[in-house]
Amino acid sequence: MNDLGQDLELRLVRYFTVVAAHQHFGRAATDLHVTQPALSRQIQRLEKYLGARLLDRTPRGTRLTPAGRSFLPQAQALLRAARQAELAVRGQAGAQRIAIGHVEDLVITAAVRELRHRHPDAEITTRYLSCREADALSDGRVDALIARAPLPLAADGIVMTPLYQESRVLVVPRGHPLADRASVTADELAGQEPAPCAFETQGWASYRVLGADVPPIESIESYEDKLELVAGGRAIAVLPVGDRRSSLRPDLVTVPVQDAPPSQVVLASRKGDPNPMIRKLRLAAEAVLTAPAH
Q1: Who contacts 141 (Cβ-Cβ below 8 Å, separation ≥6)?
Q2: Which of 76, 120, 133, 246 is the most buried (most CB within 10 A)?
Q3: What is the pLDDT of residue 82?
């Protein structure tokens, strides 16, 4: 039974897509800057309106029901259409606004500063996103995204501009047999003992778990928890050289990997987006963003 006399609220639709992206009410509430009980109530309002349960809570988070899986692509399309309508009106009015997403370890300050310098009257905001939130671009929460390729987005719906490449490094604990090497090769990593029981690749980050008593790495969501496995000698990691978070730990060492494919940093935007600030961001980013020195 839906809320008779009321229209479907885009805010509730957006809340649903964020929960679906995180598969966790707590993390979604943090991203949306609302309390978890308030978010739960809003999702319940949406479910009441639609007359169907969209999400099931599980011991490890949240999963979509069959109705939720059916509704999700329609919800994302609805948000994109609303965003396109908003941008079309703003374009006619001459408004200059852009929300820029950036993922995980990437620092985009130079590009944002350059864009503000070139367009001091524009409204420019930034939004930090976890590696699981690349869909913030497709659902309209951000207008452009600076991230590492590949992106978990449909290639026919986005435009990607390469910005720079980074080499990769092995991350191991001090005292590891490879810690004092000037460099290593991928073949040497493949021969690490004991044999790995799990392997995960996130496009730009790879973790190899050592030993059968370690949980699958994909079940560990926190970057810090993954580094703890590495520091404890229970895993090794291969990361872009620009990801400096591991260097904050004195018990970890980075070693260049000679033959690993480079990590590509890109600027992504929605195909056909009329927002003129996207092109201006692209020009600013190409002018000032470069691979960090190492």
Answers
A1: 14, 18, 99, 101, 127
A2: 133
A3: 85
pLDDT (tens digit per residue) in 176-204: 888 999 999 877 777 554 333 233 334 44
Strands in 144-148's sheet, in edge-to-edge order, are 123-129, 97-103, 144-148, 263-270, 158-166
238, two tokens: 């291969």
Rounded Cα distance between 182 and 18, Å, is: 43
Per-residue confidence (pLDDT) for residue 192, from 0 to 100: 56
- 154-167 pLDDT, tens per residue? 778 899 999 999 88
Cα distances from 54 to residues 24, 47, 61, in angstroms, run: 13, 6, 14
Q: Is the four-CA dihedral 66, 72, 73, 75 of positive or negative sign?
A: positive
Look up residue 264 and give its amino acid: Q
- pTM as predicted: 0.65
Give me 290's structure tokens. Answer: 């470069």
Residue 241 near residue 167, CB atoms below 8 Å: yes
What is the C-alpha separation between 194 and 167, in angstroms, rounded?
Answer: 26
What pLDDT score does 191 carry?
58
Q: Which residues contact 230 (CB under 8 A, 6 or more apart)?
A: 171, 172, 173, 207, 236, 237, 246, 252
Which residue in this structure is represented by tokens 């050592």? 210
Cα gap 40→61, rounded to integer Å: 13
Q: Which residue's structure tokens are 């929605």?
A: 270
In this structure, the number of other CB atoms found within 10 A of the CB of residue 53 comes to: 14
Cβ neighbours of 21 (radius 10 Å): 23
Residue type, 48: K
> Which two tokens mark 241?
């050289």
